[in-house]
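Sharing a chain and its predicted structure for anyone who wants a worked example. Both blocks are below, sequence first, tokens second.
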Amino acid sequence: MQSLYAFKGTESDDLKKDEKFLNHSLDSMYDLYLSILALLIELHKKSKDHNEKLQKKLLGTDSDKNPNTKFQNNEILHLISSNTMVQERIAKRKLNYWDLDFEYVDILFKEILKSELYANYINDAETSFKNDKSFILDIYTDIIAPNDKLYDYFEDKRLTWVDDFPVVNTTLLKVLRKLKLTSPETALLPELYKDEDDLEFAQDLFRKTLLNGSKFAEEISAKTTNWDSERLASLDGVLLKMALCEFQKFSSIPYKVTINEYLEIAKAYSTPKSSLFINGILDKVVKEYQSKGIHPKTGRGLM
């Protein structure tokens, strides 16, 4: 959607540059995932540094001289920090921004230390992998992911990361929930695509929507007598063209699946009335196709 909305050329143009932008945007999602792992590694380092500074205080209290080391010894953080494959990939892609932008690590670390989650964690006499995992999942969900300054930081770093953030957060939490002490290093490095078909679908949808853009626009315009030309040039127009492309060029995707998908995208990115507008037009299109027996859907469970 972003790549199509940003496209300023025509159907006859060479699309290689724009396809390259699309592929780069998709690949950038993996960079965000690795950047967050790098952030967790830095928070782990910060916990060690914090305890060392407390112990070196000249006028330190007894609690300063014997700080609680549960955060420092957290086994989930240790698995991430000691993962050589993760470290190598972060270094290779130059994604450890936190050495220079350490203030964000400091902000998050202070938020964690003053939280009730942290107090409950360090005061719990039980020490277990399960507790360590639960603590990391909780602070990530309640403190790290919702942090506005971190969100703004990622937005400034790469524009597409704002939209990738919720997806990457969900993936990271899923990976951490499955993590075990005996998990291989690869467990922290899921594949960006389920298979080659995933990438091919994205590229096909982009290219076929662009190459048939004017045809789709005419078809959409014919479905309403009160067509607002500005809507066709807006995000709504892009979403409608993408939906028609799926209707016509991807026979294995059910109509309902396509409609539901684009209604959700419209609710998230377009105007308050966009989902109703899009739903109305797509409903008309599907009824016409079915009455004429054109663009049938094929495959199991696709009726």
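Comments welcome. The longest helix spans residues 16-55.
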